[in-house]
Structure formats: C-alpha cells, structure tokens
Amino acid sequence: MKGILTRNLANFAFGLALLIWLILSGLIYNSLRDLLENNQKVSHTLTVLQRLDETLALLTDAETASRGYVITGEDRFLEPYNAALSSSNGIQQRLQELGQLTGDNPNQQARLDLLDSLAAQNLAWIQQIIDLRKREGFEAAQKAVSTESGKRIMDDIRRVIAEMKDEERGLLQQRSEASAGSSQRTTLLRNF
Predict the structure, then answer these.
(1) pLDDT tens for each residue of 102-113
(2) Phi, psi (deg, nearest 5) at residue 97
(3) Domain map of the chain by residue range?
(4) Which residues contact 46 (CB under 8 A, 6 or more apart)?
(5) pTM of the predicted model, to two decimals?
C-alpha cells in the first residue's frame, strides 16, 4: 500500500511539474511572440519616420534646384529636381510607400492625401518657374518667385509632415514602451 501511495505521489508530482512546465512554456512563447510583434511595430514606425524625412528632403532639394536654375539658368542645377521626379526613388515613390506603411491609420491617411496634393502643387509650381525662366528669363522668374506662392506651399508641406512625424513619434513611444514591457516579462519568465 505504501508503495502504491509513493508511486501515485510521484506520478502526481511529475504530472504537476509537467503541467507547470507546459504553462510556463506557453507563457514564454506568448511573451516572445509579443516581444517580436512589438519590435516589428517599432521598426515599422521608424521606417515611416525615415520615409517622411526622405520625402521632405526630396521636395526641399527640388525647390532648391529650381532656385539655383532661376539664378544661373544652367541646367545642371536641375539635377535634384529631376531626381525628385524619378519614378524609382522620387517623391511619388516615397508617397506610395508612406501610403502602404500608414494604411492602418486613418489620421495619417488623411494627412498623406493632403501631402500628396501639396507635393503635386509644389512640383507644378516649380515646373512653372523653370518654364518661365527658360521662356522669359531671370527677371520674370524672379518676379514669380517673389510672390511667395512656392514658399506657402512648402510651408504647408513642412507643417503636414511635422504633424505626421508628431503622430509617429507618439506611436513610437507607445510601441517602445510595449516592447520594453514584453522584454521584461520574457526575461522574468525565462529566469523563473
């Protein structure tokens, strides 16, 4: 009788240890999955911020190129403008990437629609200035630039991008905190 009781107690202890191990393994698995997911969200947010910076840089370069061309009349100054229009690495490519990256965020999608419209206005304005310089010369192009229409468009672009970056930075903070929490839980569970 004592042998049966000892064997039953050993079986119970083994079963309990196995159950605890299975529960702990499941908790660690879930914690690791959460950690991976949170890290992917952090990486995603950093990519959005990078694409916003790249978009602003391309638009700024295009504007600067047009000013250099207006002043000098030399086509070599238009290289950054032409690069901004490029289909593979240009502004439209960046805007499309941003559309895909922010597809789950209606606030960012609304801002992106506005940014897309402003970018198109900006590029059209730049093209007008370039064409005016080619057709009518420096004074006509300078006069058009001095109306500050292009500056207002760029100011609006900078404002929209700043709003988008602010939202992404808020998401980055939330996601970084969630990732840190997942990391701590995973470490605690592993050391348990």
Answers:
(1) 999 999 999 999
(2) -60, -45
(3) 2-191
(4) 172
(5) 0.82
